[in-house]
Specification:
The protein is mostly beta strands. The chain folds into 2 domains: about 1-75, no CATH class; about 75-395, Single-stranded right-handed beta-helix, Pectin lyase-like (Pectate Lyase C-like, 3 Solenoid). Helix content is about 5%, strand content about 45%. The protein has helices spanning about 80-85, 95-105; strands at about 1-5, 10, 20-25, 25-35, 40, 45-50, 60-65, 75-80, 90, 110-115, 120, 125, 130-135, 160-165, 175, 185-200, 205-210, 215-225, 240-245, 255-260, 265-270, 275-280, 285-290, 295-305, 310-315, 320-330, 345-350, 355-365, 370, 375, 380-385, 395. It has a 15-stranded mixed beta sheet that branches. A hairpin with a 3-residue loop joins strand 28 (about 355-365) and strand 29 (about 370). The N and C termini lie far apart (about 60 Å).
Length: about 400
Amino acid sequence: MFSTANIDYIKTENIDNAFLKFYKGAQVVYVEDFVQGVEYSVKGYTSYTIVTEQAITGNEELKEYKSVSNIKLYTPYLDLIDFGCVGDGVTDDTSKINQAIQQVLSSGGGSVFGRTNKFKVSSISIPNTDWQKIEIMGGGMPVPQFGTIGTYDVNKFKNQMEIISNLNDPTKGVVDVQSGTAYNDFNFAFLSLKNLRIKTYQNPNCRAVNAYYATQLNMENVYIDTGVYNVQCVEPTNGTTGIITPQNANGGFNYLRYVSVQGFHSGIDVHEHTDGDQIILHSCKNGLTIKAGDHASYFKRVLGQRNTNQVTVEGTQLFEIAQLNMEYVGTGQYDASNAWQRPNFEINDPNNLGIGEIHWANVRGNVGKVPYIRINGASGIIVKRIGAENRLLAPGNPDPNPA
């Protein structure tokens, strides 16, 4: 274990296949891959260790620096706190974060790292680029809090990066990819979001992640909410979306893993080439909204609870959902404030635009698994209960005694 008492940065030139553990006292608070040639900040930690299969023999392999003036900053990996962001959830860090993104892009693309701090912003702007990656990454996996009954304080967790915004503009996102100079106004940006929470407000009049003009999108361990437990979400009437994936004719890579959205009019707007798994959608008017696309999209497991419509189709696109797990509001599980969360349709395709297949399982609150499903249109979608052989057509098999 190495003390950080007299240093601010560390770097290696010849240690392979290693990772760093950062400590506060005896507690490990962060783990990071140790990449050759990259300067890592140790500010805020009391010590660190290097975990590797090879022997660490001394300073000929590990370089330690007292101040940033001694080294050339490795800008493709930029620590937002070291860059000058406050990260207290109160001070507006919009300008500094946008400057950090510009700096990373000026050196060919890379990552900005927010540790487990909270950053108040209006809108984080991703400018026009030429096939570069920009990644916004936190220091640990956030904890999504959702359910079907009761109340819960969703703001008590501390050790997760948060982006907090009161943006009031339905055309922009809290993370907002700008239009570009490529075909269809594409911006040749590969946007990656990892290990963070994006928090807006009740009935948001903004988007959370607007990647419509991005060429490619990668999201892993991202939790998007409106600052309240989903059962207490008011009806989202502003028509905004939690995540807008890149538009039709995108760069063929839209990868969503462990992504949760709640409290928006549409949870995720799905354009072509979208590949999702462990997608969690709660208390939205529409959970997944299928948009027009030439190429197909695929989802492995989607969980939808207390959504008015679980899947809504607004454009012709081929798609498949291998496992659509759902739960709808049961008797006594709503009041006047959240009665809007009662179900309308599980599959809502009134104009019969969808072409695809959905395998589903449904639960009614206070009852358990049920064979009921409500289908509107969807003549081009093969809808089957998991384990069943027969396809269901509209109106499906509605609950004869809905709550």
